[in-house]
Amino acid sequence: MTLVQTQTRPASAHPVQGTVADAMDAAGPQVWEDMTAEVALSVMAAARTGHLVVCDEDGQCTGLVTRARLTAVRDSSGYTDRVRLREIADVIGPFASPLATRAEAERAMRFRRLGALPVVDEHGSALGVLALSR
Fold it and tell me: Which InterPro entries match (predicted)?
């Protein structure tokens, strides 16, 4: 999943038109939830991205992890090299539907204080990531 930026807007602006599918990109890295934090940081660096979509053994999206979260976990006093992504993923459902409006997704992300949100199909497979610009 590659990062797709939506434009932030002042409160007085008109709501963003279109669907989540219009504002996301379908290409990018997905990793398994049993991957360690160190390996995930390496994958993230190689992909030059700030987040990774986390999937279970069946390929279903289970969350999203950010570089900031991985770095904070790695730098914590309780860190071991056995920490798995399933233990630290930033987002654990619900996810955005590609049919949701961009305005709905933006409100949900701001309410939950999320910078990025996985977009999944009706089967739970990751289609992309919707991200707010800061």
Answer: CBS_dom, CBS_dom_sf, Diverse_CBS-Domain
